[in-house]
Amino acid sequence: MSTLSEELRQRIQAEFPKYPNKRAVTLPALHLVHDAHRCVSTEAIAEIAELLELHPSEVADTMSFYGFFRAEDRPLGRKRVWVCRSLSCMLRGGEELLGDLSEQLNCPPGGTSPDGQYSLEFAECLGACEGAPCVLIDDECHMRATADEVVAALQESPTTPAPAGSRSE
Ligand code: FES
């Protein structure tokens, strides 16, 4: 059985016309799989490689270059929360914010909550220092963040679907 769903394969293939060759689709393909599965497994790497006509080691090399991607032994929670730990945010209470979020989300800094709902990450400057302290919820930046506001935003934001493919099917 394939790890990548047919829909995911089609979404990867839909990227082909946007790039000069299939190799250039490696990063977009990794992002698509990572978003859907909350990690990129060894099987998924092999299937991406097959689609892109590459050796799996080439896809694995690209993936390992970016700390952003998680392997199957450390999947993301359904929501990824980044707390900025660079200077402006730290001076404006970023460390306390990280501690409060860790407590409210039951999630250790750098880890994932036991219920698989949240991953709490350290971010370097998010480029929004004027709004320190800053938090990124998946792709959405929250400035002058407080733990209560972030938790409320998490509860209001749509939940990422359960991981697809072999991890849940
Ligand atoms: S230091 Fe946190 S956004 Fe720049």
How would you summarize the topology of this molecule?
Layout: H1 6-13, H2 26-37, H3 42-52, H4 56-65, E1 79-84, H5 87-91, H6 94-105, E2 118-123, E3 135-137, E4 140-142, H7 147-156
Parallel strand pairs: 1-2
Antiparallel strand pairs: 1-3, 3-4
Helix pairs in contact: 2-3, 3-4, 6-7
Bound molecules: FE2/S2 (inorganic) cluster.
Q: Helix/strand/pairing class, anyone?
A: alpha+beta
Distance between the termini: 10 Å
Radius of gyration (Å): 17 Å
Q: How many domains in all?
A: 2
Uncertain ranges: 164-169
Which homologous superfamily in CATH is the superfamily of the largest domain? Glutaredoxin
Number of strands: 4
Name the assembly state: single chain
Q: Describe the global form.
A: elongated
CATH third-level topology of the largest domain: Glutaredoxin
Bound molecules: FE2/S2 (inorganic) cluster
CATH class of the largest domain: Alpha Beta
Number of helices: 7
By CATH, the architecture of the largest domain is named 3-Layer(aba) Sandwich
Physical arrangement of strands within the biggest beta sheet? 2-1-3-4
Instruction: Give the percentage of residues in beta strands.
Output: 5-15%
The main β sheet shows up as: 4 strands, mixed
Mean pLDDT: 92
Helical content, roughly? 40-55%
Explain what you see:
40% of the residues lie in helices and 11% in strands. The protein has 169 residues and is of the alpha+beta class. It folds into 2 domains: 6-65, Arc Repressor Mutant, subunit A; 79-155, 3-Layer(aba) Sandwich (Glutaredoxin), CATH 3.40.30.10. The chain has a 4-stranded mixed β-sheet, covered by helices on one side. Strand 3 and strand 4 form a beta hairpin. It starts with 5 loop residues before the first helix and ends in a 13-residue tail after the last helix. The protein binds FE2/S2 (inorganic) cluster.
